[in-house]
Amino acid sequence: MTHPSNLPAPSTNAGKEDDMKRPGLMQRGGRIGLATAALLIAASGAALAHSEGGGVTMVVEGAPSWSLSPVYHILMAHFPVGLWMTAYLFILIRSLSDADISVRLQQAIWPLAAIGTLAGFVTYGLGLTIYPWSAITESPLGRNHIILASWTLGYWTVMSVLGYRFRHDLFEGAQRWVTLALATIGAMVITITGTLGGSLTGTPSLVTKSLNWIGWNVYMTFYMPTWVLVLYAAGAVLLIAIGVWGYRMNRAPN
Amino acid sequence: MHIKYLAGSVALFAGLLALGWITHGTSIVQNDPERNIFIPEDLTSELQVKATYDGTNIWFRYRWPAERPMLFNDVLVYQDGAWEERGGEVMGPDPDNLVEDRVAMMVDDGAVPLFGRYGGYITIGEGLTTFTGVPETEEERSKYLPSTRTDPNDFETIKPETDLEALRAAGQFIDLWDWKSSRTNPLGQADDTSVGAEREDDAGTAPYFVNFNEDTGQPLFMFDPAKGDPALKIDAVMAGDVGFNDSYYLTEASAVPFDPNRQWQNGDTLPRQILRQGAGSRADIAMPAAARWRNGFWDVTLVRKMDTGNPLEDKIFREGGSYDLAFAVFRKASTMRWHYVSLPVSLGLEQPAQMVAERIEPGTEPDWTQPWTEIKTYYPGQVTWGRLTDARQHPGADRIAQRVPVAYRHGEEQLALYGIEMEFAKEIRTQWLWTLFISLGLIVGMGININLLMRRREAAK
């Protein structure tokens, strides 16, 4: 396998080429956005048409005056999951290959991640309208779905920003392995979030059972002891400090 | 150089994730005697049941695992001149092993709304005795049916007696069979009770009464000294050294009046219940023979007339009928709500159901050749019907309104775990929220880190 670091040095006109490509990129992005919006509208219509259940409606104690059928959230959830997982697939391919096709796929990574993130925010918002907050946060499975969805959305927001800012450089030298490692974590949280959503609607998958085998019964709330949370907070600060320190070191003249 | 920072950061991030994974779910769920919280070691257990009938009688046979038989319930122990009560109604498992084994069966014929879909959950109102935060009351606040209250979530709002009588006449009660290893088994009986406005005993004579004179502070009866020791030793009782082949229970017929002048020794022990033949509707449930614990299992058979003639206290079984059952098993010296319950199970008398009672020829004894119905039982925790039907507390409240059976959405293990989480609902929710926010902070920290440390191609040159 040939690594980019072994390839000829890029042209010094690379930045200018990027500037020239940007309008085309924006046009393509716009078209993708429009197509996505059209798809969403069509799918929402389909969901609306099929969301009504049968039987006699009964008044439920404490039911919110307004809530949205879960079908919209379930429908929308397929978009971020599909887009992010496709982005991960491209990252995986690009990390392991410098072939032309892999390099071409690299260009699609950040748009996939970004559109996935946009769809993720919509999905997350729709999810919060299904049940009253007080009720869903009383359910262990509900809590778990929310925490994983929050992680997934937060994580892929970060990945989208990273993907956009370093769209040409994610696979430079050893950075490709960092990219792959981060993306693999991202793919894992998507998978778990999705399977928890399935469990919440009464259709647990083999992934749900697999999580049990490796130490987490999803019918118990995922929470950490306080001392671990303190370490997490310290870890977040430390990570930022390392980032700032490393950034300064890199910029410092040799 | 920057790649070392990057790799170090990823390693730190991954390490924290791994730490979170390993330690998650710890630090909150633990026994808390002050709040009546005792979590059983095993959250689920197994019960095997089969049934048969001959047109006049119906038999149920139950088998379940028990490490050792608990042959004693409450006892009286002589200590320094006084007789102390020990065992019986103990919170959580009794370390002294002075709580009997039991199997209980709820029976309904379809008259009680939702029982066939939610089983015993419908009988768990707010503020029942032993629930966390419920103050001790003189009278036990037991199970009740929601229809017996003007506010189903308020134990005190019981309907007028005429309304309760009408409800019972309409069949709105649950028949409750209750076999007890100490108080009913030795004489081959079970307790016939029901759940309506509360846990109610059927009319008649109970198969046991208290062996204690409140005025004298002494037992009423003791073992016959002519046939052996007049009392047992508490150490032997607790250790399980007193077994089926010993005189371990007192009956009205065999006991002799207590002798206060005897030289009682510390540790002398007498059963606190005297057994007798029950009578009336209370004694409708019998046993072909007293059950024995063998090889790690109880094997109990109960028999009752299909039609007892007491339709206001018993559910009448009819040829070709379909019924709903729910079971509870009391194991490991635990009582009250520290039991293992089942989801509702349908019973058909030669009708399609989860459990089919086979018909035998009248006058013959069951040969029990049909297979067992395997029933998973679980620790239910503290989950009230009010919570389950309130959309602000239970996301599935709308499903209950739609009459979706509990078994369609929840398994026994899942319900056991949920039951435990409900016992720590407030603490877990708070810790979960902290986990949510701080872990998101870690992700943001990682994002900033990577964005600062990643290098562009021109910078890498």
Structural class of chain B: alpha+beta
Compute the number of structural domains of chain B.
Answer: 2
Biggest β-sheet description of chain A:
none
Content-based structural category of chain A: mainly alpha
Biggest interface, residues from each chain? A-B, 79 and 75 residues
List the uncertain runs of chain B: none
Q: State the domain count of chain A.
A: 2
Q: In percent, how helical is the residue content of chain A?
A: over 70%
Q: What characterizes the major β-sheet of chain B? A: 13 strands, mixed
The CA-CA distance between the termini of chain B, in Å, is 13 Å
Q: Detail the poorly predicted runs of chain A.
A: 1-12
Strand percentage of chain B lies at 15-25%
Distance between the termini of chain A: 32 Å
SSE ordering of chain A: HHHHHHHH
Could you report the average pLDDT of chain B, rounded to the nearest whole number? 95
What is the beta-strand fraction of chain A? under 5%
Textual characterization of the structure:
The complex is a heterodimer of chains A (254) and B (461). Chain A has two domains: 29-46 and 66-223, no CATH class; 224-254. The longest helix of chain A is centred in the first third of the chain and has 37 residues, at 14-50. Helices cover 72% and strands 0% of the residues of chain A. Chain A is globular. Chain A is built from eight helices and no strands. Chain A is mostly helical. Chain A has helices spanning 14-50, 70-96, 100-128, 133-136, 140-165, 175-200, 206-213, 226-251. Chain B folds into two domains: 2-27 and 428-460; 44-66 and 101-207 and 277-423, no CATH class. Chain B has ten helices and 22 strands. The radius of gyration of chain B is 27 Å and the shape is globular. By secondary structure, chain B is an alpha+beta fold. The longest helix of chain B has 29 residues, at 425-453. In chain B, helix 1 (2-23) runs antiparallel to helix 9 (425-453). In chain B, strands 1, 2, 5, 6, 7, 8, 16, 17, 18, 19, 20, 21 and 22 form a 13-stranded mixed beta sheet that branches. Chain B has a four-stranded antiparallel beta sheet with strand order 4-3-14-11. In chain B, strands 9-15-12 form a three-stranded mixed beta sheet, with no helix packed on it. At the A-B interface, helix 4, helix 5, helix 6 and helix 8 of A face helix 1, helix 6, helix 8, helix 9 and helix 10 of B.
